[in-house]
Amino acid sequence: MTRRMWRTPELRSSYDVIIVGGGAHGLATAYYLAKMGVRNVAVLEARFVGYGGSGRNTAILRSNYRTEEGIRFYDQSLRLYERLAGELDFNLMFSQQGHFTLGHSESSMNTLMTRAEINKSVGVESTILSPPEIKRRVPEIDISDHPRYPIMGALYHPPGGIIRHDAVVWAYARGADRLGVDIHNQTPVQKIVIENNRVQGVVTNRGTVRSGKVLTALAGWTSELCGPTGVKLPLVTYPLQALVTEPYKPWLHHVIVSSNLHIYLSQTDRGELVCGDGIDGYPHYGMRSTLGFLESYAAHFLELFPALHKMKVMRQWAGLCDMTPDYSPIISPIEAIEGFYINCGWGTYGFKAAPASGLNSARMIAEGKVPEIIRPFHYNRFQENRLVGEKAAASVSS
Ligand SMILES: Cc1cc2nc3c(=O)[nH]c(=O)nc-3n(C[C@H](O)[C@H](O)[C@H](O)COP(=O)(O)OP(=O)(O)OC[C@H]3O[C@@H](n4cnc5c(N)ncnc54)[C@H](O)[C@@H]3O)c2cc1C
After folding, report:
1. pLDDT tens track for 192-235
2. 157 CA from centroid of ligand 1 (Å)
């Protein structure tokens, strides 16, 4: 008989730790908390695990960011991902096939060269390739001067790649459940209860649940729940769209990103191309995909791969992205409210961060102090003007 992936436990009246949001970040935090021996932990999810960005992303993993703080953090995450299938005993289909960021202008080449040097200085593999070197690895790509923006070079990051996003969510959920975490789907949190500057619990559609420690891991929905607590977060939610094509026999063996053309793509083991571009032009909570996205994606995609003009699109969708001004996350206790922790600001690039985010969030909650590696991502950096500027490495290139 097939074993259930996780239990459907009774909702208790109190938990030691409540995590709001059953995406990769909430589930990873719950898993690592339980692994550290913290008991009586619950994940409260409004719909079902993986409903948000964690079930809608294009599953690109890499660590070649722009700042030392960012590179160190994402590199820790990539290292955790490398061991995750074994640790959680689940096939995550992680393929470290190499990640190209194409440059089509002098200014973007300057940015890519700067990133290559900073990455190398931190010990992360990254190098600049010329157009013929790109063509050798991706023979189908057009490096001629026919496109409006010819390819001038690329930042190549060998450890980057793709993973099966649903599998990551399910594996963390099953791993957490096996260690005793209660996962409650269909349990939207309506309010975080705060009295005398301390978290007291949460109000849900199934009643009030007491807890002295609450972490929100809500990505695009963070402002909805955290806004009423009075905590000011510089987040703006935008939709991000993606699509998959019909399957072709495997021909693309690397992740290709063009930040000038605002597109990226990779090929799954099933042969489909998984494709995406930048966030929509205006803030929104809608999760419907648009014709405008399809048209603009197709136009730019054909500049890179004109031979694929007959390829058909099978489906397209959208998810919500919680953008911060510096394109870096917020993982932080809210000091003014005891027991309140926030994990958000994952924008278009947070899936790759889930293991490091979960591990360090768990340490922050269990040990009561913020681990060194996530200190730069404290929410007070916006008041103190200590931004961790990652726009050059985070936008479009997921
Ligand atoms: C199209 C697209 C492509 C992307 N591609 C990449 C990529 O290639 N690589 C990458 O690293 N990142 C990518 N991202 C970003 C990535 O998906 C997100 O940053 C990441 O999944 C955020 O995870 P999370 O666990 O923080 O939030 P989510 O997965 O969004 O989970 C939040 C959960 O909270 C729940 N929730 C909401 N309100 C409540 C409430 N009141 N009570 C209880 N639960 C609630 C939601 O139902 C949801 O399940 C992409 C995003 C999109 C949309």
Report:
1. 999 999 999 999 999 999 999 999 999 999 999 999 999 999 99
2. 25
Q: List, as one string, the DSSP characters of 237-258.
A: EEEEEEEEE----S---SEEEE
Nearest C-alpha neighbor of 257 from the set 132, 360, 391, 103: 103
Q: What ranges in the chain are assigned the alpha helix state H?
A: 24-35, 68-88, 106-122, 131-137, 165-178, 222-226, 291-304, 354-367, 391-394
213 CA to middle of ligand 1, Å? 22
- 100-127 confidence digits (pLDDT tens): 999 999 999 999 999 999 999 999 999 9
347 within a domain of the structure (yes/no): yes
Count up the domains in the chain and report the number: 2
Q: Is 223 exposed, middle or buried (0-12, 13-18, 19+ CB in 10 A)?
A: middle
Residues of the domain holding 362: 17-57+166-233+326-394
**Closest approach atom of ligand 1 to CA 353:** 11
The whole-angstrom separation of Cα 223 and Cα 81 is: 29
Residue 67 belongs to a domain: no
- Residue 170 CA to ligand 1 centre (angstroms): 14
Pair (292, 310) in one structural domain = yes
Task: Find, among 109, 203, 115, 194, the residue nearest to 150 by Cα.
Answer: 109
26 lines ligand 1 (CB under 6 A): yes
d(CA 372, CA 195): 30
